[in-house]
Amino acid sequence: MSTERVVGIGAGSAGLDTLYERGGTQPGSELPTTDMVLNIGPQHPATHGVLRLRLTLDGERILACEPIIGYMHRGAEKLFEVRDYRQILVLANRHDWLSAFSNELGVVLAVERMMGLEVPIRAVWLRTLLAELNRVLNHLMFLGSYPLELGAITPVFYAFRERETVQAVMEELSGGRMHYMFNRVGGLKEDLPLGWLGRAGAAVAAVRKRLPDIENLILGNEIFRARTVGVGRLSPELINAYGVSGPIARASGVDADLRRDEPYLAYEELARDGVLEVVTRTDGDCFARFAVLLEQVKVSLNLVDACIDRLQGMPAGPVNVRLPKILKVPEGQTYAWTENPLGINGYYLVSRGDKTPWRLKLRSASFNNIAVLPQMLPSEVVADMVAILGSMFFVVGDIDK
């Protein structure tokens, strides 16, 4: 006796989410056995964007998981090769649309290293300030959206209130809400508007004052704890094997942060002054990953305050280096990596002395963070899959590039 049937899952899936059953009779028994293959995505309310997970189930228990990516692939790395170094920033800006400023930063650091450019000190501190504000914006999005995936709608309104407070000063400075285009090879687009540092400091103070609203609402909630504590544990061994980084790795006790370990911008001085703290947890579950994200927001707010204090005591000066109209990078290669909000983001740049890169390879954090799912999800139940998936804190464009 054998059976096979196909059942569509979800009216909104347009037939893309399908349940396959193939079964037979267990040897020595008349009880039928059934293997199920369930497609979650690529268009389904339970997934982030157009990520697809192909799950093999034994009842409600997950036996295997296969992430299927590429639905958002835009060929960004090949497009890099036919654009000059100023135009590249437009594309690099967008693979992780929640971390646009940090994405730009990785490109310009690589180019500046190849050209041997020394960026004005004022631009260095301002870049650090903006990178940390961008980190706050990124983390607030996940702090609001993750409880939403578990059935709690209120936290997203608190998180977006804080995001709008920070967005206001970012938009005033750069003119953009998500894609800032404020970095330039050799520094920044322009200097600060009059009084901007004061307004940025007020925004940081407001967010810090109201952040306990999110913390008290979520971390002590018994339903949230039941859905996250002990769920989706990720071991340090798997993190090292798959190159997982960022808040997810630190939630499993991996004490690694490029801002401290291989400092760039002004992070070395901030670490020496004790302002830069690396937040870690040891449990490695969904709850720990959320808690690390929340604590990192507090650290980033402290870093922004330190940068504001330094900039306020700094004399006026340039924020960029004057460059030729046609920018050519000397022949050679380099690898520049940064601690992006979601983890390690690296650019491998190869130049043949032209105005466009011969090769610009992107190492994104989200790709590695999702690659470990086949090791995490087996033995978990389907109901916990959404909690685990959401706690991996990824952006689909950062996977597919």
From TrEMBL:
Query: Where can this protein be found?
Result: Cell membrane
Keyword match Ribosomal protein: no
Identify this protein by name: NADH-quinone oxidoreductase subunit D
Provide the function of this protein.
Answer: NDH-1 shuttles electrons from NADH, via FMN and iron-sulfur (Fe-S) centers, to quinones in the respiratory chain. The immediate electron acceptor for the enzyme in this species is believed to be a menaquinone. Couples the redox reaction to proton translocation (for every two electrons transferred, four hydrogen ions are translocated across the cytoplasmic membrane), and thus conserves the redox energy in a proton gradient.
Lineage here is:
Bacteria, Bacillati, Actinomycetota, Actinomycetes, Propionibacteriales
User: What is the uppermost EC class here?
Assistant: translocase
Query: What's the EC number here?
Result: 7.1.1.-
Q: How does it sit in the membrane?
A: Peripheral membrane protein
Q: Could you tell me which PANTHER family the record lists for this protein?
A: NADH DEHYDROGENASE [UBIQUINONE] IRON-SULFUR PROTEIN 2, MITOCHONDRIAL, NADH-UBIQUINONE OXIDOREDUCTASE 49 KDA SUBUNIT
- ATP-binding found in the keyword field: no
Name the protein family: Belongs to the complex I 49 kDa subunit family.
Its domain of life? Bacteria
Keywords from the named record: Cell membrane, Membrane, NAD, Quinone, Translocase, Transport
In terms of InterPro entries, this protein maps to: NADH_Q_OxRdtase_suD, NADH_UbQ_OxRdtase_49kDa_CS, NDH1_su_D/H, NiFe-Hase_large
This chain is encoded by the gene named nuoD
| Reaction(s) the record says it catalyses | a quinone + NADH + 5 H(+)(in) = a quinol + NAD(+) + 4 H(+)(out)
Assembly notes: NDH-1 is composed of 14 different subunits. Subunits NuoB, C, D, E, F, and G constitute the peripheral sector of the complex.
Domain NADH-quinone oxidoreductase subunit D: where? 150-326, 327-401
